[in-house]
Amino acid sequence: MVSYTATTSAEDRALYDALDLLENTYKVNMSPICPVVWGEKSAEIYEKRAQFGGTLQRTAPEQVLGLLDGIRMWRTVMNHTRPTVNDDTAKSPIYDELNIESAEDKYKILYIYVIRLLKQSIQSDAPRLPHVISHFFARLSKLILHPESPVFTAVLSFLILKPVMELDQVPELYKMLLSSSVEHHHQEREWILTLISESLIEPADYTIIQNRSGFKLMLSLFPTAMVDMTARRLILSILKTAVQMRSVAHDLFHRMNLHTWIACVIKDRSLSTWEQCYLGQIYCILIEMERKYCRQSQVSDDDTKRSSLVAATTVRLTSRQVWYFT
Questions:
Q1: Distance from CA of residue 256 to its chain's centroid?
Q2: What is the mean pLDDT of each run of 10 residues along the chain (326 residues)?
Q3: DSSP 258-272
Q4: Which of 164, 17, 212 is nearest to 103 (CA)?
Q5: Is the same domain home to 255 and 144?
Q6: What GO cellular component term, any one, is given (predicted)?
Q7: pLDDT score recorded for residue 71
Q8: Sign of the CA dihedral 200, 201, 202, 205?
Q9: Is residue 200 part of a domain?
Q10: How many helices (H) and strands (E) does the chain have?
Q11: Residues 217 and 309 placed together within one structural domain of the fold
């Protein structure tokens, strides 16, 4: 850092790009040299840091300001509006403003665009955002700072393709869950499943997921070779969370026939013992929630009685299969 002067010269730009590459791409810990100082006077500061440590030898703001050249700083202020180029030909290059800005400022425009996208998607006064939407934007805001992530391109592509978002659906559900990426399909599928798992908090979230037939997709994918063990465990976690909600469990029992699905899937030899036991646990919770729902139901017409009788019969048939494998 002794030869670095934080200017627009080609040499300083190359040094800055090298430091940026080490920190943001290769994740090298730069804390030993922070706060960064430069110039000939920095040699003494770094020497004292190495000798006494960063705790005992702290760099004061006055020391950092003392490294700035007054005349060069004045020229920088007077010429800050001109295009920033490699200033090799200039006799006295100005300070590079990009080096003064924080790393987060590089993504300022993208953050503003994301906030504007969310604002334009809201079509009512003081709406309550679904958990899946709020979690999506929270994870998106964190992902913006990590362009090296394998899911970065897939998740952020919707910013270009869609001027507004549908707030009653899981964003990018089909694209991520049925990923066609050759290299990163597992990571993309795990990303969207993790989003669903963390945002499934109340029955309204279940409705949001079902607007795109999310549970049907997950149940269809579970026994296939398209998903790995990590994705299967995420699906099991989602199912367990869902059946713990009484109204959701009732819907999964009657409309999705989840108990029969468990009885069929649990026989799969590719499943581990842990997964079979977990399926059995989901089955028990589902049946218990359905019993509580039926006890508290006030409807007593013939259709309801007939439906309850059919449900009780299927439970007796499927329970033997589940108990055998668990």
A1: 28
A2: 72 80 76 71 75 64 69 68 49 58 61 84 79 90 84 83 83 88 90 94 93 92 90 94 92 89 88 89 88 71 58 66 66
A3: HHHHHHHHTT-TTS-
A4: 17
A5: no
A6: nucleolus
A7: 75
A8: negative
A9: yes
A10: 18, 0
A11: no
Supply 221's token pair. 């994918």
Rounded distance between C-alpha atoms, residue 288 and residue 292, angstroms: 6
Write a three-state SS string for 132-182: HHHHHHHHHHHHCCCCCCCCHHHHHCHHHHCCCCCCCCCCCHHHHHCCCCC
- Specify whether 181 is located in the same domain as 257: no
Please check whether residue 175 is in contact with residue 185, taking contact to mean a CB–CB distance below 8 angstroms: no
Whole domain around residue 290: which residue ranges? 245-325
Q: Does 35 sit behind a cis peptide bond, omega within 30 degrees of 0 on the bond before it? A: yes
| DSSP classification of residue 95 | B
Minimal CA–CA distance to 286: which of 240, 255, 320, 319?
Answer: 240
Q: pLDDT value at position 243? A: 94
Q: What angle do CA 141, 144, 147 make, to 5 degrees?
A: 155
Tokens representing 63 are 């020391």
- Residue 242 in contact with residue 201, Cβ under 8 Å? no
Q: Which residue has the tokens 């705790």?
A: 55
